[in-house]
User: What shape does this take?
Amino acid sequence: MNRLGKWNGVVLMAVVPLLLVAYGQAQTAADDGLQRVLERDEIDVRHRWNLETTFKNVAEWEAEYQRLEQEIPRLAEMRGTLSQGPEQLMTVLTLRDQIEPRISRVFVYTSLLGDQDTRVGENQALRARSRALAIKYSEATSWLEPELTAIPHDTIKTWMRQHKPLALYEQAFDDLYRSKEYILSEREEELLAMAGEVFGTPGNAYRLLSGADLVGLYPRIDVAPGQTAELSDSAFYQFMRSPDRNVRRAAYEGIVGTYKKVRNAGAALLNGAVQSHLFTVKARGFDSCLQAALHNENIPVRVYDNLVDTVNENLPLLHRYMKLRSQALNLADGVRAYDLFAPFTKEAKLRYTYEEAVETMFAALEPLGPEYCEAMKKGVASRWIDVYPTKGKRSGAYSSGTFLTQPYILLNFHGGYDDMSTLAHEMGHSMHSYFSRGTQPYVYSSYRIFCAEVASTTNEILLQDYVLQRIDDPETKLFLLVELLETFRGTVFRQTMFSEFEQRIHEMAEQGVPLTADSLGAAYGQIMKKYYGPDYVHDELVDSYWLRIPHFYYNFYVYKYSTSFCAATNIARRILDGEPGAVDAYMQFLKSGSSQYPIDLLKLARVDMTSAQPIEDAMKHFERLLDETEKLLAQRG
Assistant: This one.
C-alpha cells in the first residue's frame, strides 16, 4: 500500500514478514562428517514453491515487463481529464486497476526469485528492474491524487449517484479525502514519487548486507566434541534453543558479534531510513513520524500509546517469567541474552517431519470450518510453500503474493514445534490473502497491515490449544507451556519493546539527536533492561542486537504484531468456546480486505481495539500460562 491509499503507486514488496525467524535444525546432508546446508536443486520439487504459476520463466516475465513499459504512459496521458465527469474518472480508475496488479505480479516474481537465492546477481538485477518499473508507474500516476482531490468531495458523491459503477470506490474516496490536507501539489507529488528509489536505498542495502554480504563472515562454532556447525541467520534460533549454554553463547557471539563489526554502517543505514520518514513528515505536514505512519490506516495514536502503556504496566509479569526462567535453567549468574530462548525441558518429544507438521496443522484448524480448511489443503497441494533452508536463501519466514498470483510462503523448516507454528502462522497470512483477493475487487483486495497479523496469530493459538490438549506427559506439557509463554513474550512483550525503541529513535531524529551506533545502542540497551528486569544480566554485545532486526526499516510495523496477538487471542477463544456465529464473523473479517478501516474490520470479528481491554485480557492469559508452568515446575522438584 502506498503512503495515502491505493491511488498512486504500487506495492513494492507484497510480503507480510515474520520477525522471529524459524528455529530448529536445518535440513542437512553429510559433508566430511560435518553438517551442511543443502543447495536448492538438492531439495525435492514438492518442497519448492511453484513460481511457474506466476510466470513460466524469465522470458515470459520479460515479455510482460516490456508490455507494461509501453502501457504505463497511457495513465500519464490522462492527466488533466478527471474533471470531465464520472465516466472519465471511471475510465482512469479502471485502467489503473488493470495495470497496477500486473506491476505487482512482475515485482513479486523477481522478489521471490531473489529471496530463494540471494547469491544470484541476475535475480537481484531483475528485482531492481521491477522496482524501477514500479517507480516509473508511480511517476506516471503522481498527478492522480492531487487532481482528484482538487474536485470537491461533494461533487464526487454526486458523480457516484449519477454513475453507479463509480460507487465501488466510495470507501477509497472517503479514505483519500481524509488525507487531503497531506496531499501536495502535482509537481511535488511527482518529485516524491521520483525519490522512491532513494528512500528505499537504506532498506535495500540492509537486506543485501544481512542476507548476502555477512553470510560468509559468520564463524563456525563447536557444537559437540569434534563437530562444528555452520552459522546462519536462519539457524540462529536453532542454536539459541540448545540445552548447551556454551553452544548458545558461541552462536550468539558469532552472529551478533559479526553484526557488530558493521555497526557504524548499520547505524548509517537505519538513520537513512528514519530520515526518509522524517522527510515525509516535514514535506506533508504531519505532527510526528508516528502520526504519519499510523495515518495511512486511520489508527489513532492513542491505540499505539495504549499498547505501550498497558504492556509497561504489566512488565512485572515478564520479570516474574525471567525469574522463573533463571530458576528452571539453574542460571546462577542470571538470564543472559543468549538464554532467552532456551527451553525448560528437552525438545526431542515435539519433533515433526514437514508432512507431520502439515497434517497436525490441518487437524488443529478444523474449528475454522470446511470452507477454510478445504482451500488451505488445496493451497498446500498447489505448492504455495518453499519449505527448507538452502544456501543463499533468505532467512526467516513470510507470506507473499499479489492479486494476480497464488499465495507464496517462504519457510526455513527445521523440524521443531516452532517450525510447525511458523507454518500455521504464515498459512494464516496466505489464507487471509486468498479470501480477500477472492472476494474483494482489486481496490480492496489487500488488507491493511494493522489487521495482517490477526489471521496468522489466530492460527498459532488454535494450533497451541490443539497440541496442548493432547499431551499427557508432564515434561512434554511443560515444554509446550514454555513455548506458549515464549510465543507471548516474543509477540507481545518483545514486539512492544521493539516498538518503544522505534518510537524512541524517531523522536531522537525529530529532536535533532544524531542516530549513531553509540546512541542507538544506548537506547536499545536501556529499553532492554527495563523490559527484562532484575533477573536479566545485560552485556555490551546486546547493544548491537538492533542490527539484526529488519523490521526497523518498515516504518512502525512491529507494534501490529502485539495488537494483532491480543485481537487473535480474543477471536480464537470465542471459536474454541463454540460461541454462536464466531466462525462466520471471523470469515467475514477474512473476506473483507480493506473495504473498511482496520478498526472497523476487527469489529466485524467482534474485537474492539480502541479499548485497552483486549490487551488486558491477553495479559491475563499470559498470567494463567505462567501459573500453570510454575505449578508443573514445582511438581517436577
User: Anything to note?
Assistant: The longest strand covers residues 220-224. The domain at 52-204 is CATH 1.20.140.70 (Butyryl-CoA Dehydrogenase, subunit A; domain 3). The longest helix spans residues 474-510. Confidence is low (pLDDT under 50) at residues 1-35.
